[in-house]
Design goal:
The protein is of the alpha+beta class. The chain is built from five helices and seven strands. The strands form two sheets. Strands 4-3-7-6-5 form a five-stranded antiparallel beta sheet. A two-stranded antiparallel sheet has the order 1-2. A hairpin with a 4-residue loop joins strand 3 and strand 4. The mean pLDDT is 87.
């Protein structure tokens, strides 16, 4: 739409037609979308900033849903595990775990959903990861939980402990 002062604005326009004395008359309803678009832009910019933080993080950041399906796998995870994000996203996170943890993971998630008993969620601990080439390495894993559309999602922050372990062994 264009205002009297010449400035333009985004709008929704609904037009209806009616007959009066055999003549068509039209009714227009205008809804100014300026605030909605401003809000959408702010949300988009916030999402872009968050994506920039995750993509440039030195440590791995992985996001999974309540069933263990990987939703996000940042570039640090790609370097750490040797998989591309496309190879991991949509698959169960247990593909990044060595046995016996791989077999136990789905049961752990199911038990958490049934009982609320946490083993790692809300804290961090040292665990083992498995790279694409099959090698196993020590890592510090911190897991946080959030809700999205009423469902749990889990954010894992992964720090490779390989160099520290190697140094400890040498000492």
């Amino acid at each position: 739409g264009q205002r009297k002062d010449g400035s333009s604005f985004p709008m929704d326009l609904s037009v209806g037609e009616a007959k009066e004395d055999g003549e068509s008359i039209f009714v227009g309803i205008i809804h100014d979308l300026t605030e909605r678009e401003r809000g959408e832009r702010a949300v988009h910019e916030g999402a872009e900033r968050l994506r920039a933080v995750v993509d440039t993080a030195v440590d791995g950041v992985i996001l999974i849903d309540a069933q263990g399906t990987v939703l996000m796998f940042n570039p640090a995870c790609e370097r750490l595990f040797g998989y591309t994000a496309a190879e991991v996203t949509g698959n169960n996170v247990k593909m990044l775990m060595p046995p016996p943890f791989q077999e136990e993971h789905d049961g752990y998630l199911g038990n958490y959903h049934r009982t609320g008993e946490r083993k790692i969620i809300g804290s961090g601990r040292e665990v083992k990861g498995r790279r694409k080439n099959g090698t196993v390495f020590p890592m510090d894993l911190s897991v946080g939980e959030a809700k999205q559309d009423g469902q749990s999602i889990f954010v894992g922050i992964i720090h490779d402990l390989s160099e520290r372990k190697k140094t400890e062994e040498q000492l």
